[in-house]
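Cross-check.
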Amino acid sequence: MNLLENLKLLKKDAGNTPPELAPMIVSWTETSDTISRRFQFQPNGQLSVKVVNDSRPVIHKISESFVNTFLPSGYPYSVNEGYLRYTQFRALQHFSSAALSVLSTQSLLFAAGLRPTPAQATAVSWILKDGMQHAGKLICSNLGARMDSEPKRWRVFADVLYDFGTSLEVLSPLCPQLFLEMAGLGNFAKGMATVAARATRLPIYSSFAKEGNLSDLYAKGEAISTVFNVLGLGAGIQLVSTVCSSMQGKVVVGSFLSAIHVYSTYEEMRSAPINTLNPQRTAMIIEDFLKTGRVSSPADLRYREDLMFPGRVIKDAGNVKVGRNLHKVMKPSRLKQLKQILPDEKFVLNFGNKSTDLVLEQNASGEDALRGWLVAAYASQAANGELEMVEEAYEKMNAVMPTLVSELQAKGWHTDRFLDGTGCRFGF
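Predicted model, tokenized:
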């Protein structure tokens, strides 16, 4: 091949060179605070930002704004089951409570003005009345451990106390000579109610925090409370100037608002899936496990909890009672025999005619309580001697315990602690 042919081949190859690739455009869309923005890198490396027009109907924009303001981020996937029902009744509870507070405040002011005493004495009585509220707070603060064990029950009890105190204030104009006594007792009850309501708020919110978003839940809950408190105050002001201008009207409307208030709180608490172990929930878990072989979730048990009388024993769960003092449960000789059978366990059992006492060590966890409860339940089904039935029940418990604990944890239960609320535990 001569030089001319080589030059022709090179020219042909140069004509077949692929064209340069067009620069790749990188773009994405981000949505934050209901505003969508389109980001794009230009060929020169600069980043351009453009707000994307929102063509949705106005009603959709309003509903999304409402959700972002009053419901947690990521709702409904970021909360546990029952949160919407809880929020609905919480709003109704705050509305009725605020309206009721307007009636009670007007009645107190009216009763104070009816007293045939100097203004200075009336001012002193008003201050003493407020002091009774602080006394109620101090007394109720000693019951914190019981509130940890049964937060739903104490939350309902708090609103019953609050309505009792409010009722005394509404009725105070009927006997102005007893203003200090009635207003003081009413404020005492409301002080206890305030502590109980605030102390149980965190366990309730924690039961809904599916993704550790406790602060978000608390903030959105306070937003709902604020809005419906304001609406309730407005409704209360309208009521006292119309149908509640007389004492008969206050009694009728006040009773109606109080009933709505307590009912809303009751339904609100029933919707909360508390996921900590206490005596009542543990008994129901053991009962379902022995009957059906399945483990109930917190959502499964929420409507079955007894909020009024949680201390009842369940026959199919061994009739177990928790919280009695060890020296009242068994004699030292009986304790020695039992510890020989269960040397490494952090619980002791005493089998009575009608119930079985379960006493835990100071550092016993929720799993230790479950172990003791299972032994008691299996032993109650046995027909042989007491020590023999404990040994047999202990073997059955060890066989099923790993499965039970793993399924409980998978369902969202906290098995690392047991909240009995009494503080009656022992330590060797």
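The chain has two domains: 83-270, 276-418. The longest strand covers residues 26-32. Passed to J.P. for a second look.
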